[in-house]
Design goal:
Layout (H helix, E strand, L loop, with lengths): L3 H4 L4 E5 L4 E5 L28 H6 L2 E2 L9 H8 L3 E8 L9 E2 L3 E2 L5 H11 L3 E7 L6 H4 L3 H15 L3 E5 L8 H17 L4 E7 L7 H13 L5 E5 L7 H20 L3 H5 L2 E6 L1 E2 L5 E2 L1 H13 L4 E5 L31 H7 L35 E2 L4 E4 L2 E5 L3 E2 L12 E6 L1
Parallel strand pairs: 3-4, 4-7, 7-8, 8-9, 9-10, 10-11, 11-14
Antiparallel strand pairs: 1-2, 4-5, 5-6, 12-13, 15-18, 16-17, 17-19
Helix pairs in contact: 6-7, 7-8, 8-9, 9-11, 11-12
Pfam family, one: CBM_5_12
Protein name: Chitinase
Keywords: Hydrolase, Signal
Length: about 425
């Protein structure tokens, strides 16, 4: 099952038709191209943060910090109340070897950019989990010789970023390789044993039957190794799904697979089950709206499920036009929404209350042409979605959008922000 996260990414930037968004191509799910090379200095390591409750790691949505037009994690925190992020993805080096990289290209050992993002999140009281694998690319379970060496590679990631949580995203093409799956499950078991309290999720493809043949073989491997993570999560999208009802039906079916595989009763199976959705338009054209997320959230909480997450925060903002001309984007949802609508369902799953949607600032700042500043461009508006090249006025300066943005004040995130300062009006 191809997912947009597999199709958007890589080193070459492409313009998404009709969306006005600059993203990278190809293999974003398993590739972190378009890496910000001008990383903050002095961020070679990140201080260990106090662990959040497991419920926050279970609610952490996926975020690509180096690709698919990364949004500001701290602004998402302010706007939605979100505290935890699932950073994606760790792969083997594209040139071969058993060492961890971001997307096959950026070695973890020398990373400063992702470390800087993590430090900023932790400075605001949040934390991260890191996801390994994804769709496409070479996984460490394929590149490393056994479970022990695979675990040693992942331990480097845990140590580098002082992690309290990790996600094993096992799917194409790795989960068709029985030796690689054995290495991954074995590594997960070793990490669980060697890092007491580590929150471990295992994510795989979803089907109407719960999961497919390879997903079942992965469950069988876990059983044979005596490994039980905090949850096994399925991704019920890109498989002919049609809204929330089809997704909850798949979750019910998957619960039965967990029961029969591990000998659990229904409630124990739900306590080890997770949902990983896709917000907005999926790669195959399925549509999952805010109301679908609410329905699945109600199902998850009502059945005592362990995890509720989605792909991805990079997409949790409105395209321009909102339906993106019937296409799927890696940097917006292709459905009408306010920025970070879908993140708020994760916040609710964690047991917190998202902040009010009422803006704390006036929706339009008084910097229009009639102001003493003399700016000719229209005033920046928090409710307006801007695309690359759009010009606004704010604080007596003219600003040009570098990429798609909404509800990000010009100048609020310095050189890493979406706006280029063109100087005083």
């Amino acid at each position: 099952m191809k997912r947009l996260r597999a199709l958007l990414g890589g080193a070459a930037a492409v313009a998404l038709a009709g969306a006005g968004l600059a993203v990278a191509s190809p293999t974003a799910f398993g590739s972190a191209g378009a890496v910000h090379t001008a990383a903050h200095s002095g961020a070679a390591s990140t201080a260990k943060a106090a662990a959040l409750s497991d419920r926050w790691y279970a609610a952490a949505p996926y975020l690509m910090p180096l690709d698919n037009t990364p949004p500001s994690a701290t602004e998402i925190m302010d706007a939605s109340g979100l505290k935890a992020f699932q950073l994606a993805f760790i792969l083997a080096p594209n040139g071969g070897g058993c060492s961890p990289t971001w997307g096959g290209t950026a070695p973890v050992s020398s990373d400063t950019s992702v470390a800087s993002t993590i430090s900023a999140i932790r400075a605001k009281g949040g934390d991260v989990s890191v996801s390994i694998g994804g769709y496409g690319g070479t996984k460490l379970g394929q590149a490393c010789s056994d479970a022990a060496s695979t675990a040693a590679a992942y331990q480097q990631v845990i140590d580098k970023y002082q992690l309290h949580a990790i996600d094993f995203d096992l799917e194409e093409p790795e989960y068709e390789n029985t030796a690689a799956v054995s290495h991954e499950i074995g590594a997960a078991k070793i990490l669980q044993q060697n890092n007491p309290g580590l929150y471990v999720s295992v994510t795989t493809a979803g089907t109407a039957a719960g999961t497919g043949w390879f997903g079942q073989q992965m469950l069988n491997e876990a059983k044979s190794q005596g490994f039980t993570p905090n949850n096994f999560s399925i991704m019920p999208f890109d498989g002919g799904f049609n809204g929330a009802a089809s997704q909850t039906s798949a979750l019910t079916a998957f619960n039965k697979l967990l029961q029969t595989t591990f000998g659990w009763n229904e409630s124990t199976a739900y306590a080890h089950e997770g949902f990983s959705g896709m917000n907005g338009r999926s790669d195959t054209g399925e549509i999952f709206t805010q109301s679908d997320f609410q329905t699945v959230l109600d199902y998850a909480t009502g059945h005592g499920m362990d995890r509720f997450t989605f792909w991805s925060l990079n997409r949790d903002r409105q395209c321009s036009p909102p339906d993106n001309n019937g296409t799927t984007s890696g940097a917006c949802s292709s459905v009408p929404q306010s920025a970070w609508d879908f993140a708020k369902y994760s916040v609710k799953f964690a047991g917190a209350t998202p902040p009010s949607t009422t803006p704390t600032d006036p929706p339009t700042d008084p910097t229009g042409p009639s102001d003493p500043s003399g700016c000719a461009a229209a005033a920046w508006n928090a409710a307006t979605a801007y695309t690359a090249g759009n010009e606004v006025s704010y604080g007596g300066h003219a600003w040009k959008a570098k990429w798609w943005t909404q509800n990000e004040k010009p100048g609020s995130t310095g050189e890493w922000g979406a706006w280029e300062d063109e100087g005083a009006c």
